[in-house]
């Protein structure tokens, strides 16, 4: 049987490839972005109690009403933004589902979506499936937005621009001037919307995270995506949420109801309670210490570390050690040194290779120390 493919160029993701290679060679896996330490004991206790409560049936499609109220309160505390829980919020099966749903709802055949490379690989696929056209714009070598190039890429056919700060994979964060430039871009293109991926919003280090929620000129033209999985190191729960003005959210909900209908009921109920006791502000210091500890460990290696201003990813340059491609170097790192990382070129649609690799430092210190000891042999 011949089966036609809507995504003929899509194969196994680099994350799966590197994890499989790590497993094959018994390597320490610092490639995929998931923590390996225990979740907050308070959250574990809440879940244990919820299992025995009557919370096992479908929730409303938009989300558990109590959780929606708590998310609205979180937005007010974090950003001084008031939202209507019933019309401007949506609980999603992880941030990736939120991104997919939003693009399916808002992008029509032939419309363009601007993506800033390097970028998360789940941005492009829903654009293609919607019949849209991804327009990739390369960031500057220091991973800051190239605004002249972005302005040249946006046209009357552009429906969305996808932004991500703190940025995966680079760990850079947007500046005030970046947001001013974005606002000026929207002024020039009245039909352009912003899809803001803010899954690392509570993991920004030297300066507080700046969000579209802060910007009065952006709120009515933006939809944001957040992740409880990233914030509370519960990535396997696959629970996130979206914020958007009512007219935009109404269209997103139309797709959401036929894609997943509603999200895991026990997880939603537990998170609604947990948001009353957790201090999201403490996440910044927790992951900053992880970053600093890992950087100190790697200081004894021959790798050169790039600035890490947010997320739980650290980029390292190896160009002074080898002229190999970053893919070849990352594979050799697994086979010969027993540590798995991600080659950053795989986040570029054109394969741009600056000889940078990405490590995830959201691991316990024992794991990070063991990896650093192996990397000293480089």
UniProtKB/TrEMBL annotation:
One term under GO cellular component: cytoplasm
A Pfam family hit: Aminotran_1_2
Family annotation (InterPro entries): Aminotransferase_I/II_large, Kynurenine-oxoglutarate_AT, PyrdxlP-dep_Trfase, PyrdxlP-dep_Trfase_major, PyrdxlP-dep_Trfase_small
Cofactor: pyridoxal 5'-phosphate
Keyword annotations: Aminotransferase, Pyridoxal phosphate, Transferase
UniProt key word Transferase: yes
Protein name: Methionine aminotransferase
Organism expressing this protein natively: Flavobacterium caeni
């Amino acid at each position: 049987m011949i089966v036609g493919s809507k995504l003929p160029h899509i194969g196994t993701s680099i994350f799966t490839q590197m994890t499989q290679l790590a497993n094959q060679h018994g390597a320490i896996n610092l490639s995929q972005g998931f923590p390996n330490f225990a979740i907050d004991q308070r959250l574990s206790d809440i879940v244990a109690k919820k299992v025995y409560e009557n919370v096992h049936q479908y929730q409303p499609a938009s989300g558990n009403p109590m959780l929606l109220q708590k998310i609205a309160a979180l937005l007010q505390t974090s950003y001084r933004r008031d939202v209507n829980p019933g019309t401007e919020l949506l609980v999603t099966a992880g941030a990736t589902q939120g991104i997919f749903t939003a693009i399916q709802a808002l992008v029509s055949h032939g419309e363009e979506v601007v993506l800033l490379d390097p970028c998360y690989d789940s941005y492009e696929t829903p654009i293609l499936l919607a019949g849209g056209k991804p327009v990739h714009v390369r960031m500057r070598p220091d991973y800051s937005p190239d605004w002249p190039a972005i302005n040249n890429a946006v046209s009357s056919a552009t429906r969305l621009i996808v932004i991500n700060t703190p940025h995966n994979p680079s760990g850079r964060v947007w500046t005030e001037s970046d947001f001013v430039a974005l606002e000026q871009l929207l002024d020039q293109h009245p039909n352009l919307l912003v899809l803001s991926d803010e899954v690392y919003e509570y993991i920004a280090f030297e300066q507080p995270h700046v969000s579209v929620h802060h910007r009065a000129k952006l709120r009515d033209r933006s939809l944001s995506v957040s992740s409880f999985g990233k914030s509370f190191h519960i990535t396997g729960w696959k629970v996130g949420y979206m914020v958007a003005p009512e007219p935009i959210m109404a269209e997103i909900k139309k797709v959401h109801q036929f894609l997943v209908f509603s999200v895991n009921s026990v997880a939603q109920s537990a998170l609604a309670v947990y948001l009353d006791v957790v201090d999201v502000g403490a996440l910044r210091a927790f992951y900053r210490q992880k970053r600093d500890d890992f950087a100190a460990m790697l200081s004894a290696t021959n790798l050169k570390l790039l600035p890490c201003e947010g997320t739980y990813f650290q980029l390292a340059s190896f160009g002074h050690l080898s002229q190999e491609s970053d893919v070849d170097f990352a594979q050799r790192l697994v086979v010969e040194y027993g540590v798995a990382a991600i080659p950053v070129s795989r986040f570029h649609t054109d394969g741009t290779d600056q000889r940078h690799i990405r490590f995830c430092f959201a691991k316990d210190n024992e794991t990070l120390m063991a990896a650093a000891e192996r990397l000293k042999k480089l």
